[in-house]
Amino acid sequence: MRLVIVGAGGHGREVLDIVEALREQHDVPEFAGFVADTVPAPELLERRDAPHIGALDLLEELDVAYTLGIGDGSTRRALDERLTGWNRTAITLVHPAATIGSDVELSPGVQLAAGARVTTNVRLGRHVHLNVNAVVSHDCRVGRYSTLSPGVHLNGSVTVGREVFFGTGAIVTPGITIGDGARIGAGAVVLDDIPGGVTAVGAPASW
Asked: Which residues lie closer than 8 Å to 101 by C-beta, 6 or more apart?
C-alpha cells in the first residue's frame, strides 16, 4: 500500500521530511504524493520532487494509507472523520531522530518530528503532532488532534484535552490539566490548570 500526505502547505512539507527520513531506512510505505484541494506554493513541491496527485476527493477511490500534513487540530479532526468514512488507514510516523521510551502508546496518525522526545508511560491520541524538539515526559496524556509546536515541553503527569494547540517553546509544569480546544501561547509557562476553549499567554500563563 502506498502513502499520501494530505495537505500541501508548509506543515505538509515538514511531514515529507519525516517520510523521506523513514524511506531511507525502508521503514515507510512508498510515497505516492500530496493530496490537497489547493497547493499554496507548487514550486516548492517541485523542488522536492514531490507530486501533487489530486484533490481530497481522490481518496474516496484511491486505496492508500494517509498522514495529515495539517497544522490546525480541528481541521485534522474533520479530515480524519471524512477519510475514516472512506475506510482509509492513518499511518503513524516517527522520525529516526526522535526517541520513545518504554510503555508508550502512539495512536494512529501520530507524528513525531526530528528531535521529539517521549519518555515513559505516555499516551498520545489520534493524530497528535509533535514538532521538532517537542518533549512529552512521564505519565502524560495528550488528547486527539492536539499540536505541540517546536520546543514545547510537557513535564510529568500533564493531561491535555483534544485539539489543544501549544505555541513554540511553551512549558507546562507537572500535574497540570488543560481542557479541550485551549490555545497556549508561544513561550507561555503554565503553572495552573487551563480550562477548555481559552487562550493562555505569558509567564506565568493567564487567560
From this structure: 118, 119, 120, 122
> What single DSSP character describes residue 58?
G
**pLDDT tens column, 117-170:** 999 999 999 999 999 999 999 999 999 999 999 999 999 999 999 999 999 999
Cβ atoms of 144 and 160 closer than 8 Å:
no
87 beta partners: none
The rounded radius of gyration (Å) of the Cα atoms in the chain is: 17
Query: Is 173:167 a contact under the CB 8 Å cutoff?
Result: no
Distance CA 191, CA 164 (A): 17
For cell 499520501, the residue is 4
Q: Is 168 exposed, middle or buried (0-12, 13-18, 19+ CB in 10 A)?
A: middle
Phi, psi of 42 (to 5 degrees): -60, -30
